[in-house]
Write a structure and sequence with these properties.
Helix content of chain A: 40-55%
Largest sheet of chain B: 5 strands, mixed
Order of helices and strands of chain B: EEHEEEHHHHHEEEEHHEEEEHHEEH
Strand content of chain B: 15-25%
Structural class of chain B: alpha+beta
Shape of chain B: elongated
Radius of gyration of chain A: 17 Å
Number of strands of chain A: 10
Strand content of chain A: 25-35%
Distance between the termini of chain B: 85 Å
Strand order of the largest sheet of chain A: 5-6-7-8-9
Oligomer: heterodimer
Amino acid sequence: MRKKKRIKKSLVILQLLRTTITMEYLIGMKFNNFVLLAHDNNGGRDILVMKQDQQKFFKLDEYAGMVVSGEAGDTVYFSEFIQKNVVLYRIRNGYSMSPSAAANYTRHELAEALRQKVNIVNLLLGGFDKTSNTPSLYFMDYLGTLAEVPYGSHGYGSYFTYSLLDRLHRPDMTQVEAEDLLLKMDSGRRKY
Amino acid sequence: MLIRVLLPNGEEGIFNADCLAVSLLQAIRRRYSDLAPDETIDLCSIAGSMKELSQSLNDNAAQFFTERELCLVVKVSGSASSSFAYTPLLAEYSMNQEFLEILNHKSESVPKSRRKSRALQTARQTEPSKVEYAQEAVKKGSTAVAVRGKDTVVLAVEKRALAKLQDARTVRKICSLDDHVCLAFAGLTADARVLVNKARLECQSHRLTVEDPVTVEYITRYVAKVCQRYTQRSGARPFGVSFLVVGFDQGTPKLYQTEPAGTYHEWKANATGRNAKTVREFLEKYYTEESTQTRDEAIILAVRGLLEVVQSGSKNIELAVMEKGKKIEIEKYIQHIEKIREEEAEKKKKKPHP
């Protein structure tokens, strides 16, 4: 009986792992004066799309925000939890969490959850630090990985975007140029 | 059981003590009929210890005496609330100062068991409860005033004079609980800090679970609930703080006050802390719906109220204003305060003139 249970659990995790490299698509790009975050609007499971105006962006108080993908309920639950805690920090201390602080806090929560429960949440956190006047972009995945990156992506589409961004991304782009670049990524994504 | 009683006329009578105390006293009265009927009598031993039969009339008299004990008849005057005064009815004893002292000095003459119960009685009457101690702590705290206007809520607190080397910014008597709720307090600062922390957490928790900001009443009720819990817990003392919670419930301004006991009420304008009564009387006199229509009028009312009890000067007053739809603003009204102070000073100058 015990063996069967173990096999079942691992099967469930394998299924979930599959959904992590999922049909959902996130992209983030950092430039000299701003950070751009984008997400696809599909909400559903794999090929079954139930909603086409899904919001995946969560504002973290005044100077940061994140786009989230992964397991349907986990993403929203985790993101709202982080959101409220970032606001609580500001109310308690009188000043907002910096994007770097917010990113490290989010990673900490991800890492803690990793061995408590199955929590499949991948995200890109972008922000603008008021004190140093610099933008920052952080890549995080469900295993608790944290990396500060010039550009990042989640989902099957990421296989295509990285190569494109390696070639086309320049930190000194304007907002208009950045949006053009985003559209290029999107067309690249559509090809698969 | 038989006892011997020295009657006022000098005779010694023998009485049966195996009866109710009231019956024994009645028997003594019958034997010595010179006593007025409304005079209370009692018995005491030769040594001066009162038997206090008159306070336990329905008890068996035998328990108060030993076999063949010699007793005196004593007149009782006074009542339970003031102390009793006993006068022996025998001349040679009533003249004896030492005896009188022993008789009326209850702490020595009362038998141990009786002494304890009486001590407990007095203790229960006069000892303040923990909640009352907490309320005393609030009365010693620096004053805080709150006024609810039409579209504005104002908090004004007295800033205690700081030591020279102390950084003024670290003393915060006005705290925000969320973007639309804030409070001022009077009492123990550390207790306030704990409660404010809990309240802030509750505000965000509420937002997380129901996707709505708290109403002012909800968070006040939560704080009051925590306060009350500590008034009933053994080993813990109540919080010695009183809060003035202000905020907006979707555009409607609100003001609530909590107390250490765990109660809360809604107010139009209120004060707490030292001299709160004076400020409240001032507010009762001058607060009307019309007088607090605009933001400035509400501010002026609050500051004037505070100036009644605080040494005038912008250095001693901290002000916070919250308007409908906007975030709280602190410390921008120094000019207002200075202006009001000048007006008040002028009024005082004009007073002596007829």
